[in-house]
Amino acid sequence: MGITLFAAARPDGGRSFSRDAIAGATLASMNIPQVLGYTRIAGTPVVTGLYTVLLPPLAFAAFGSSRHLVTAADSATAAILSGSLSHMADLGSAKYVALASMVALQTAALLLLARIFRLGFLADFLSRTVLVGFLTGVGVQVGVAMLGDMLGLTVTARATLRQMVEITRDLGSIHPSVLLLSATVTGLILVARWLIPKWPVPLVVVVGTISASAEFGFGAHGIPLIGPVPSGLPSFGIPDVTWRELLNLLPVAGSCFVMILAQSAATARAFASRYGERLEENADLLGLSAANAVAAVSGTFVVNGSPTQTAMADAAGARSQFAQLIFAGIVLLVLLFLTGPLQYLPRCVLASIVFTIAIGMIDIRGLRDIGRESAGELRLALLTAAAVAGIGVEQGILIAIGLSLLRHVNHSYRPHSEVLAPDAAGRWEPSPVKPGTETAAGLIVYRFGADLFFANADRFADEVRALVDHAPHRVRCVVIDASAITDIDYSASRTLRSLLADLERRDITPILARVNQFLRADLDRHGVTASLGESQIFTTLHEGIAAAERVGFQEAGHPRDAESAGPPAEQ
After folding, report:
1. 325-336: average pLDDT
2. N or C, which terminus of the chain has less Cβ within 10 Å?
3. Which domains, from first to last, does the chain contain?
4. CA pair distance 166, 157, nearest whole angstrom
């Protein structure tokens, strides 16, 4: 498959260019202070946060397929770095930055390997239910994390529950001026989102509070500020680390890789689903690999597809990666000319802006829709949200994938199975499998609604035996409608052969109907065809019932119009 550069950065039309340009500027106003804050988590110099949104977004826009995913510094991968590298070098030192950059380069290599082996399919294991829960959990996690700065409290914990405990314990130490400013900014943005949703209100808020802070000396009144930010472009080069350090960093890069694969895929899939767009996960892997490679050579740390910043871009009106190109251009201007004013931005203003985005990520409507249609899937979504918020994004999304697979396996283990049984008018209709149900006197037509494998084969055989044992009349023939069975493994084939042999010992003729070419190949390979005989295997249900009639079950008196009235249409 060829690579089309900047395909995701092409707006739909003229108005889209202006819309995405405004969105890029708005995103810059919200996100520049945020990525500066992420450096506190990562343990790197503050200016490296700006480097994460200079070249990496350009690289992803060039190679990625998601029109919405914002690739930049992220709290989750930043936390992985600080937790793993702090014992290898002093936080903020040149050596520490080199180690962090090498992790980004190794992560880029792992993402490239994932692209080569086309592992993007792993994102297919994230259902819409999981995605709703995922974004909701991230919204809760981010919202709680912002409360400390919004209240003027120092929160050292990283886990959401511990952060809540710290905040509750220190409520008596809330800074009144910080709380007032946070409440004003939050209320203004939320009201504006409702009344004038297309206006770049966060941009106005950032510019206004920077001006007010510089004019009235917010810092002198105890309101924490971002602080000085060095100017200039990054220096380029391969991170200088030893071979031993290179090997020691591999597990850190592996953790970042897992986080990026799970979080970026979940976020990109969620927003593609929201707008009905097709996503090419393998192209996104290449884009993320390129983004981390340029992050490494430009002296910064791992970048990720951020759900928070993607939600920011979406709320600002971005509908293509063109917004990220504008964003990167503004960052370039800031690095060259405007780092001075940023030092006056209050931290509580930054936190309040992010808090309003977090509120928008909590998808109450989506949860309500899921609950209206499936209580089981609502529980899965809520459990996903709780795991992401309470345990962590990486662990939460892995738990969600595991629960999704478990739910799928449970459906395969307990599939819908049916028996054709006569209704009040004597016509054959699908009915639930219950002992004592028969299709006609002497005949049972049974349908199993899933592939046969080692876990559900005994269930399949037990249901057939129960139908035979409790039939009102002596059973002469069992027709197995195999329309839903496309695959059968070794263990299941042995169970099936045992069942068929048992039926024949009891003078009951087993017949397999609606056998497709894939199932037939499995039956041949596992010896089922040889033991049963080709004369008892058919591609249609009508042929199977006709064969059953030749066995003689009709002597017990079945509806004469059964073939035309009862069996469902061929598939």
Report:
1. 94
2. N
3. 14-408 (no CATH), 416-565 (3.30.750.24)
4. 8
